[in-house]
Amino acid sequence: MRDLRSIGAIALILALRRQLMTDGTYWLNLPAQSPDRRENPFPFLALVEHTNYLPPEHFGGDRIVYLGDYVAPDHEYFTMSEDEIADLFLPSLTKVNPNFSPDWVRKRWLFRAPYAQPVPLVNQSQRIPSIQTPIDGLYWASMSQVYPWDRGTNYAVEIGRRAAAMMLETRS
Question: What letter does residue 80 receive in the DSSP assignment?
């Protein structure tokens, strides 16, 4: 387990009063030119306007925008307050829509997970831990065990079912 590597994830979700990407764009992958993203016009790598895919009527009329990034578990984003993150992220939205104003934000939510995405290393297939641990009755199922696949709900369900089957098998 000590050999496994991961990166963290941060997501600032915005409920906007107005549409941000008026051309209907759903997802933008943004450049990461340096380890210090403050040098870039975007301090995050993904901008997703969910309501350009699913209508705002499904969200009480709000426009739902996701600003996400993958960063090291010790990145400053994990110690910054929600207000500090918003102060850093929101100004860059004028690069997407020059009319954007912070008063468009009706509500926001910040989510962080320091270990969100496994980072496979050379010979990763030889590092995958067993679901059944050396501790009797303790099982471990994680995204680090779905290699060579990337994380995804379908893989989480599949590994959860495998772990449950192993638990039931040892009970009988």
Answer: S
The pLDDT tens digits along the chain (172 residues) read 777 888 999 999 999 999 999 999 999 999 865 555 556 778 999 999 999 999 999 999 999 999 999 999 999 999 999 999 999 999 999 999 999 999 999 999 999 999 888 888 898 888 888 999 999 989 999 888 888 887 788 888 999 999 999 999 887 6
Written as six digits, the tokens of 67 are 């600003």
- Tokens matching residue 10: 């941060």
CA separation for the pair 17, 103 (Å, rounded): 8
Q: Residue 147 domain-assigned?
A: yes
SS (H, E, C) 90-151: HHHHHHCCCCCCHHHEEEEEEEEEEEEEECCCCCHHHCCCCCECCCCCCECCCHHHCCCCCC
On whether the pTM is more than 0.85, the answer is no
Specify whether 131 is located in the same domain as 89.
Answer: no
Q: Distance of alpha carbon 130 from its chain centroid, rounded?
A: 25
In a domain, 61, yes or no: yes
Report how far residue 165's alpha carbon sits from residue 171's, in angstroms, rounded to the nearest whole number: 10
For the stretch 52-68, pLDDT in tens is 999 999 999 999 999 99
Q: Flag whether 1 is in a domain.
A: no
